[in-house]
Amino acid sequence: MTNSAFECLLVIPGLIAALVSAGFLYQWLGGHFDRLQYTAEGRWVDIGAGRKLYLLEKGWGEATVLFEAGIAATNLNWFQIQETVSQFSATASYDRSGLGWSSPPRSARTPGNLAAELHELLQEAGLKPPFVLVGHSFGGLVMRRYALLYPEEVMGVVLVDPMRCEEWLPMDLAKQEKIDRFRKLSGFAIPIAQLGLARLAVTSLLCRSGRIADRLAGIGGQRGRHVLGRIKAEVGKMPREVWPVVAAHWSRPSYYAGMRSHIASVPDSVREMQAADPICGIPVLLLTPGHSSPLSGDCLQRIGDTVRQVIAPASAHWIHLDEPELVIQSIREMVGASSGRTTEPGILATSADVAIPVG
């Protein structure tokens, strides 16, 4: 080996170290400025044991509408809905521990633990009942559990295509392997985010031309391009003003750690809610996508004794993004009915309303 070749080999570790250091610095500076730029509208609430949850409040009213996002989603998922609902009611959305701007979790991400944390958040934040609970997907399980634990605080529940526990049971080897695969992928993303590569990709995708994101997705072949296409389609339904904030969330290593914690708790969450009692004496309005089969009367009975199912004909799983007017009108109806006010006729009158008797 020549001296010049040997010298080149000695330089390589230094270059790698410099690139790694640059990546860490890029990520740290980006995270610091994200926090300064995008969090001023809300506040952090200390719920003890080193846990701080990010809370966003809007509007005013006798009742407060509480929003709970899906399994890996944050308060941003409700941006458009919360903006409109806050015009006729007090509202509050938040980031669960491990997601968005909130601190890392200290317990399993099961509906019971999350409902207890939400209760602590509301108490420490000074938000008083009555509450109308609105939950999407996995968030629907959390809101069901909250209504069971604290029924005296709840005057109505709106479930937006809630997670169907019966589809996960029995928890066989194939389903567990699927959960383990997603959990491992979330774990692999943590060091990628720490090096600033996730920030580079999502910033390119949501804030710039998207060329870098396309090239990185191409490394993953057809699967990588498929995932990128789905991300573009779903985020594209959200207002453009929140895209940079979504990019900020997805750039954080803690986001992927939080996602991993939520995914790891799916089996326990399913078993917990499959064994849960039905909600009694509280009206529940359940929105089901037109692209899915309606829930049977037996499934509705497991949810509650006063459940009305409404079909969202033009929606897939993300009804609040596909048909936000339907979700807003559903909330308006629940707030009005629970407070004794007459709601204005609107979208619900023309939606596919499935009258399935329960109880």
What does this structure look like?
This protein has a nine-stranded mixed sheet with strand order 1-2-4-3-5-6-7-8-9, sandwiched between helices. β3 (64-68), α2 (79-85) and β4 (90-94) form a beta-alpha-beta unit. It has helices spanning 3-38, 79-85, 111-125, 138-149, 173-194, 197-207, 211-219, 221-235, 243-250, 253-264, 266-274, 297-303, 319-322, 324-338, and strands spanning 43-48, 51-58, 64-68, 90-94, 131-136, 154-160, 284-289, 307-312, 352-354. 51% of the residues lie in helices and 14% in strands. It folds into two domains: 43-170 and 282-354, 3-Layer(aba) Sandwich (Rossmann fold), CATH 3.40.50.1820; 174-264, no CATH class. α5 (173-194) runs antiparallel to α10.
Briefly say what this structure is.
By secondary structure, this protein is an alpha/beta fold.
Which characteristics define this entry?
single chain, 359 residues, alpha/beta, Rossmann fold, 2 domains, nine-stranded mixed beta sheet, 9 strands, 51% helix, 14% strand, disordered C terminus
Total number of helices: 14
Please state the oligomeric state of the protein chains shown: single chain
Whole-number count of domains: 2
Give the CA-CA distance, first to last residue.
83 Å
> CATH superfamily assignment of the largest domain?
Alpha/Beta hydrolase fold, catalytic domain
Q: Which of globular, elongated, flat, extended, rod-shaped describes the shape?
A: globular
Give the strand tally: 9
User: Largest sheet, if any?
Assistant: 9 strands, mixed
Q: Taking Cα atoms only, what radius of gyration do you get, to the nearest Å? A: 22 Å
CATH topology of the largest domain: Rossmann fold
